[in-house]
Amino acid sequence: MKLKKPAYDCHVNVWDPEQYLPVYHEQLGRVRPGGLPPASDADTLARELAAFDRIIVFSPQYGDSIGIQGAEQTTAAAVAKYPDKFVGFAYVDPRRPDYMERLRHSIEELKFKGVKFGPIYNGVGLDDPRMQPVYAYCQANDVPLTMHMGTTFPPKTRIDFGRPLHVDPVALAYPDLKIIMAHMGHPWTAEAAVIVRKNPNVYGEITGLCYRPWIFQKCLAEIQDYSIADKVFFGTDFPFSTFDEAVDGLLACSQEREEARVPPVSAEVIDTILYNNPFEAWWHTPV
């Protein structure tokens, strides 16, 4: 489809083919018959997501859980190749002894504009003491922190680390830290909604929900009920969903669905989420 006005993808994974490990395809086969397109490199992203005005990209390091081991150099190369399209986020793994040194390098030398963290994938909870320097650094340097909140499929993960409830104490302790809960914490979407409403510095995004129609419809109804659409952002989670899948899935939620048994979501809420601009909200100063 053709978008009516500028739109932004706030959550895109960039990986090179050699960064996929065999366990990734083995695990994905359990939950996604046929798997996913193997390519999520910079050229593929630029082509497949051309409809977006700007795209936030990061290269998570999930080798020992999901089976993809990205690298900061992959993100840097993608941004360098498409500087007007891509905005790079660092990835932080607090298990590494040099994690803060690497984070500072990514922000200060590579000029990445935010940070991505996957507590369930790295097995580090949000209340782990190793996270405190990350929060403090991001707050002091006006760096938004996107965190994977919600479930996943790899068996070597702590699902409870993805509960949105764990975000609340962090938001209270670091009131100037911009926190983004990826995937609206599904299936705990109502929990995510009330935390977004409660905390001025917490935002949500709806990536990874389009292929779960009932949860997606319910999530959008909760966003509508709690009047937080202006704090929720759109994205694809490519390659886990394509542009068409993500947009069509969102637009479909504006129609009545008897099987869902939740209120239809207004066109205003749909448009607000689809066209929200993270570059006007996630930083204290313009990017």
Automatic annotation (TrEMBL):
CDD domains: metallo-dependent_hydrolases. GO terms for molecular function: carboxy-lyase activity; hydrolase activity. It comes from the Bacteria. InterPro entries: ACMSD, Amidohydro-rel, Metal_Hydrolase. It holds the Pfam family Amidohydro_2. Residues 8-278 form the Amidohydrolase-related domain. Keywords: Hydrolase, Lyase. This is Amidohydrolase.
